[in-house]
Amino acid sequence: MTAPPVAIIMGSQSDWDTMRHAAETLDALEVPFDARIVSAHRTPERLYAFAKGAKDHGFRVIIAGAGGAAHLPGMAAALTPLPVLGVPMESHALRGVDSLHSIVQMPAGIPVGTLAIGKAGAINAALLAASILALSDAAIAGRLEAWRARQTAAVAEQPVSPA
Ligand code: RP5
User: Fold this and answer.
1) Of 45, 65, 80, 118, whose Cβ has the fewest other Cβ atoms within 10 Å?
2) Domain ranges of the chain
3) What's the fold here for domain 6-153?
C-alpha cells in the first residue's frame, strides 16, 4: 500500500502535544499523513528503517519534531532524499533553544528546513509541506489558498478589550 504524502515523525510521545498542531493543520487542508514516534536515540533502528524506506513507501515530505539533543530531523535527512522539515520542541530546561540549535545547525550538504520553536513551527511545517505538494497538486494549492484567505479574513481591524 502506498504511504500518504506526508510523514510526521517525533522523538517521543511527549512531542505529540506540539506536533498534533501539524496534524490538525494537515487535516484542515485535507492532506493525508502518517504520524509516528521515531526516536533517534531510543529507537535508532526504527529511525534507520523508516528513513531509508520512506521514499519507496511513497512519502514525499517528512516533518520531524524533536527536543533537547534533537538529532531526529538531521539523521532522517541524512538517510533520505526527501525534503525534511524540522520542528524544535520547547524543552523544559532551555525553552527550546537547545532543540533549535540542534536542528538548525546542519553541516552543508544535508539540509533540514528548520521552523520556529513549538506550536508555530509545527503549524508552519504543515503549511510548508502542503506548499511543496501544491507545486504538483492543484487541489491542495486551492485548499491552501482558501486557508490563507480565511486566515486573512479572521484578522480584525481593531483590537477589543477582554470582557
Ligand atoms: C527527544 O527528547 C524527544 O524529541 C523529546 O522532545 C525529548 C524528551 O523526551 P521524553 O523524555 O519526554 O520522552 O528525543
Assistant:
1) 45
2) 6-153
3) Rossmann fold (3.40.50)
- Using alpha carbons, select from 146, 108, 99, 130 the residue that is nearest to residue 24: 130
- Alpha-carbon distance of 130 to 147, in angstroms, equals 11
pTM: 0.97
10 Å Cβ neighbour count for 27?
13
Q: How far apart are CA 119 and CA 87, in angstroms?
A: 9
CB burial string 106-143: b at 16+ within 10 A, e below: beeeeebbbbbbbbebbbbbbbbbbebbbeebeebeeb
- Per-residue pLDDT tens over the stretch 38-84: 999 999 999 999 999 999 999 999 999 999 999 999 999 999 999 99
- Ligand 1 contacts (CB < 6 A) are 11-12, 14-15, 39, 41, 66-68, 89
Q: Which among 10, 14, 17 is the best mutation to test ligand 1's pocket, defined by most ligand atoms within 8 Å of the CB?
A: 14
Binding residues for substrate: 12, 15, 42
Amino acid symbol at 109: G
Rg over CA atoms, the chain: 16
Residue 4 CA from chain centroid, whole number? 14
